[in-house]
Specification:
The protein has 194 residues and is α+β, with helices and mostly antiparallel strands. The chain has one domain. The protein has five helices and eleven strands; from the N terminus they run ααββαβββββαββαββ. The strands form two sheets. Strands 3, 4, 5, 6, 7, 8 and 9 form a seven-stranded antiparallel beta sheet that branches. Strands 1-2-11-10 form a four-stranded antiparallel beta sheet. Keywords: Membrane, Transmembrane, Transmembrane helix.
Length: 194
């Protein structure tokens, strides 16, 4: 009788341990909250206070986006598409990490972590998705194109594991450079007057 009971208990114990491990693995890695509502994206962009200079036939401008600016702009963009319970962006060493808290089946909290590496390509910025985690579980790279295709916007194009800002979306401005480090993204743009 005791032997039969032990045989039944071992699979139950394994199943319970597996469920506990899965719940631990997908739970949020960092404690984050939603950004404060700062109005529409257009309003937020006008508050960025760009620096300008004019040389010959060219107007140069630079804009610095802090992590709070990125959080607010990103949240304004996704709040009607995804139900989030927290959002945080970190910028360091030419990497942009986005932490997004959501719930699986309405009651199991999890956090998805996207790690992007920006680069310049043909006067535009390209964001290459380097890794995606659901909690502590690494998502296989074969799923990255499917994840990125869910992003629906007229301002970007999706190619393989990358998001590129469409030139038409910022026209007549062109991107001349960027720097992503120390909690901020510095964008350098220009406009040709002739």
């Amino acid at each position: 009788m005791l032997k039969k009971r032990t045989k039944i208990n071992i699979p139950i114990i394994i199943i319970v341990l597996l469920i506990v491990w899965i719940l631990y693995s997908i739970r949020p890695v960092e404690q984050i909250s939603l950004p404060q509502n700062k109005g529409s994206i257009n309003h937020q962009i006008t508050q960025l206070n760009p620096k300008m200079s004019i040389t010959n036939n060219r107007i140069n401008t630079s804009v610095t986006l802090g992590q709070d600016d990125l959080n607010n702009i990103l949240y304004s963009y996704v709040k009607n598409q995804i139900k989030l319970t927290g959002l945080k962006t970190t910028v360091d060493n030419n990497q942009i990490k986005i932490y997004a808290n959501t719930n699986i089946i309405d009651f199991i909290p999890t956090q998805v972590i996207f790690n992007f590496v920006p680069s310049m390509e043909d006067e535009s910025i390209k964001f290459t998705l380097k890794s995606v985690y659901v909690g502590r579980i690494l998502v296989p790279k074969s799923y990255y194109p499917d994840i990125l295709k869910r992003i629906n916007s007229d301002y970007i194009s999706i190619e393989d594991n990358s998001i590129s800002v469409k030139k038409e979306s910022i026209s007549p401005l062109k991107i001349s450079g960027y720097k992503a480090d120390n909690g901020k993204v510095d964008l350098s743009l220009y406009y040709l007057t002739k």
